[in-house]
Every structure is written in C-alpha cells, then in structure tokens.
Design a protein that fits this description.
Layout: E1 6-8, E2 11-13, E3 17-19, H1 35-42, E4 49-56, H2 74-88, E5 93-98, E6 115-116, E7 126-128, E8 131-133, E9 139-140, H3 146-162, E10 167-171, H4 177-182, H5 192-195, H6 199-212, E11 217-221, H7 235-246, E12 253-257, H8 274-278, E13 286-289, H9 294-303, E14 308-311, H10 313-317, H11 321-327
Parallel strand pairs: 3-4, 3-14, 4-5, 5-10, 6-9, 10-11, 11-12, 12-13, 13-14
Antiparallel strand pairs: 1-2, 7-8
Helix pairs in contact: 1-2, 3-6
C-alpha cells in the first residue's frame, strides 16, 4: 500500500512516501536557497511528496542561522531553482511556512526581541553560531500587531506560489509561533486570542487558503510533543478542537507527528498514537511522521489510521528512499555531524543504493 497512488488535495501522488520537512541550515546569502538546495531536493524527487524545510515568513520569524525564508525578493527566486529542479525530475513539492516566535534570539533578529502571544520565556536554550544561549523574555504581541503577523503568512504563501511550489504546509508544530498561540504553555492572553486560542491558527489558515485554495494547503501538528519547550496541559482537548475546526475547510492534508521516546524533549512516552486518536475527527488525507520503517508504515496504512507516511532522517542519507523501501535495499547510515550547516558533504553526496 505504501507504493499505491493517493489523491491528496489537488494532487495525485504516485506513492505514499512523503519527505518530511528537514531543517538543514544551508541557505545562501539573504537566506535564499541556492543551486545546492535545488540539487538536494531534486535527488529526492521520487517521493510521493516533498515538504521543503521550514522557511520563515519574515525576518523576525527566523529561529536559526542559515534557514531559508520566503519573504524577500531574492528568496522566491532561489526557491524557483528548487521547484524547477524537482519538477524536472518528476516530483511534487510543498513549502513549509514557519515563524519561530519565542524560539529565537535577538542576535538572529537584528537586535529585536522574539515575539510570542505572551511574555513566556522559554526554559530551553537556542542554538546559535557561537553556541547555545538562553533566549530572553519575548515581546508579547499587542492586538494591533497580530494582523501584521497573519499578513506575513499570507505574503509567504503568495511568494511560495510565485516560486512554483505545488502547495504549502503551515508549521503548527514543535513549539513555534502557531503552536505558541494554540497552547496554554505560551498563550496566557485573556483577550480574543487567548479566550479562543484557535483564533490565530484559523486566521493564518484563512490567509493561506485565500492565496492557494484549501486543496493546496496542509497543516502540521505535534500534539504530544515537547520540542522547543512546547506542549499543552490538555493536548487531546486542544488539538481535538483545532482538528474539528479545520476539518470542514477541505485542506489538502493533516500532518501529525507521533511523539518520540528517545529523549525528554521529544514528547510524552505515555501518549497514545496520535494518528489513531485524531483520525476519527479528520475526514481528509492524514500524513503521519515519527520513527517509521517499512513495516510500521505498512501497518499504519493497512489500519487506515493514516493515508501516507513521512520520513525524515532516513531521507537525509537515502535520496532514493522510495526505491530502497520498495526493493529492500539496505539503508545508508546518516552522519549527525553534517546535519546542520556546511556545504554538500552530508547533503548532496549520499549515493543511491544501486
């Protein structure tokens, strides 16, 4: 079933293997993608769908050095190199739009404070070029400022359209800004954006739909994850409300991250499988991610709790992952030392299996 076609919004995928968005910190000058990024993604074009790495929708949305953006004049031109290369290789590619929110540092933001729904200082350090540092207390957005942030997402969506993507995914996971508005860990507001913590999410989704149409917009959540000091006191209720509110909109897909148990910041080891938990609330295509291999992927598809499976780290060192999964070719081991930053080493130099 992993290699059967799937109708996903406006697209028909040739298989159900999805390349998950992977931050690699290899953008060029001005946080614009380059020919190196185009080669990397084109090598992986046999995926049913590629979801390109998290890309900030404004300069103040940056959370790491070297991550690409989609807000300046140069960045969409760089992304066009990527989309042209992927399409020439027969692939399909969405762009993940992202705002780091409080998970940033003034040194990445031209001296500005990170923003957040509330003045909720993260407890975990931020990775910076000179080493990890504790982020400051963020600037709590005023009511007058929030529409401008929603507009940043709309502009990012429009730039992604101009850059030739097939659609976009909104990054509502892993402790970043959309999640910060959604969860009680970072949103202590008592106004319209706190009394209804879904409001910011729904406004951003509406802005993306206005540009793309619902059938080319996806959303990613990590309901039981704690990455980047995220989390909620009642994730089943919070994300259940969010998914119920999004379901009638006809989005291309819902993308859920299963909590990993390899570390305290990855998620709740006692959490139930999120695909099975939230599947009854979602009538559209559902993508699941989080430590899957061929056997686990086949099982979740056979159960009907997901329609496609996203693979992350396996795609780093196996550009022909679809073919390896299908033919039983052994996987190449990735090198963690080359995950972030640098050039082609550990990025475009992994050979195909045969």
């Amino acid at each position: 079933m992993l290699f059967s076609p799937l109708r996903l919004g406006a697209l028909t995928l040739p298989n159900r293997v999805v390349m998950a968005p992977l931050t690699r910190q290899r953008a060029g000058a001005g946080d614009a993608p380059t020919a190196l990024n185009a080669l990397h993604y084109a090598q992986r074009a046999s995926a049913g769908l590629i979801i390109a790495e998290a890309s900030q929708v404004s300069a103040r949305g940056r959370g790491y050095e070297g991550t690409p953006g989609c807000y300046s004049a140069e960045q969409p031109a760089g992304w066009r190199l990527v989309t042209d290369a992927v399409h020439a290789a027969g692939g399909r590619i969405f762009l993940q739009l992202w705002h780091a929110g409080r998970r940033s540092h003034p040194s990445l933001l031209g001296g500005s404070l990170p923003i957040c729904p509330s003045a909720a200082q993260p407890s975990l350090p931020v990775r910076l070029p000179g080493g990890a540092e504790q982020p400051p207390v963020p600037h709590a957005l005023t009511l007058d400022e929030i529409p401008g942030v929603v507009e940043d997402f709309r502009i990012g969506a429009a730039n992604a359209l101009a850059a030739g993507f097939d659609g976009i995914e909104l990054h509502g996971a892993n402790g970043y800004l959309i999640e910060q508005f959604l969860t009680d860990k970072a949103n202590w507001r008592t106004d319209a954006y706190g009394g209804d913590r879904l409001r910011f999410l729904l406004e951003v989704v509406a802005a993306a739909i206005d540009v793309w149409g619902a059938d080319r917009v996806g959303i990613r959540f990590s309901p039981f994850g704690h990455a980047n000091d995220g989390g909620d006191s009642d994730p089943e209720t919070t994300y259940g409300r969010a998914i119920r509110a999004l379901d009638p909109l006809g989005l291309a897909y819902l993308h859920l991250i299963e909590p990993r148990v390899s570390g305290a910041t990855d998620g709740d080891p006692d959490a139930p499988p999120v695909a099975g938990l939230f599947r009854p609330l979602w009538s559209g295509p559902l993508i699941v991610a989080g430590g899957f291999d061929r056997a686990k992927a086949d099982a979740v598809l056979a159960e009907g709790t997901a329609d496609a499976v996203a693979f992350g780290r396996m795609y780093i060192s196996n550009p022909d992952l679809v073919e390896r999964l299908r033919d039983g070719v052994p996987f190449t081991r990735y090198d963690r030392a080359t995950f972030y930053g640098g050039g082609g080493v550990g990025y475009t130099d992994y050979p195909p299996g045969r």
